[in-house]
Each structure stands twice: as C-alpha cells, then as structure tokens.
Amino acid sequence: MLARFVSEAEALSAVVHQPSDEAQAIQKILEILGTDETVLAWEWSSIPLSGLAEALEAARISVASPRDPGVRVGISGASAALAATGSLVLCSGKGQYRATSLLPPVHIAVITRQQIVPNLEGWIQGQR
Q: How far apart are CA 87 and CA 120, in angstroms?
C-alpha cells in the first residue's frame, strides 16, 4: 500500500519524503522550513513525530495563530492516507485547524505507514 500511496500522491504533484527514522523526518521538516520563523501547526499530540516541537523551538520557529495569512508552511498529522487516491483524510477539531492545511502554500502532513489504508471506504468501515 505504501508504494501505491506514494505513486498516487506524486501523480497529484505531492512531494513524498520517506525518512528512515524520526530524526531524519525532523531534519527534513527543518530543511523545508529554511529561514521561516513561524508555522501553522496542529497540536503536537495530533502529529505522530516525537521531538518535533522541541526541534522547532530550538530552531526558534514558533507556531502562529491559525488565522495568520502570512505563514508559508502548515504542519499537520492526518487521520488516514488513502492508497487508492494518494490523498489524506484530515479531520478538523480542537487543536486540528483546517487552516493549517489550506491557508499556507506548503503543507507538511506527517503520517505513519500504519495510517495508510486501501481507500476511503475501508477507512470509513474501520471507524465503525
């Protein structure tokens, strides 16, 4: 399912990074952020990457208000990644603002392999 998700996501012009561990994932995020001083982000407990909050703090990158239109990058987790379409299921709610993935021109979604499901129907069935 991973290969299919990557193939479908890349067909949609997404850039998929597959770091080998959490340290590499954090390094890639910092690289993407470059000289940015702020990001939009979900609550850290909703992003499956331990140490990310501390790494951003150490790099002097703060989390902006979800209504800040000047932020270039949003960072979120996802409820699921759909292999059939290369798309993500992003459920909004407290600490999981829609603006994080919609407002900034760059959206970083942190997912785990376990979150990849065959299709939307399969994910919905799993929610029952």
A: 9
Q: Rounded to 10 degrees, what is the CA torsion of 56, 62, 64, 69?
A: -80
How many C-beta atoms surround the C-beta of residue 5 within 10 A? 25
Instruction: Compute the distance between CA of residue 34 and CA of residue 30 in angstroms, rounded to an integer.
Output: 6
State residue 126's pLDDT score: 87
Q: What is the pTM of this model?
A: 0.94
Give the residue among 29, 18, 21, 16 at the shortest CA–CA distance from 86: 16
Return left, alpha or beta for 90; rule: phi > 0 is left, psi -120 to 50 is alpha, else beta.
Answer: beta
Which residue type, as a one-letter code, is found at position 36? D
- Cα 88 to Cα 34, 36, 59, 75, 123, distances in angstroms: 25, 25, 28, 13, 11
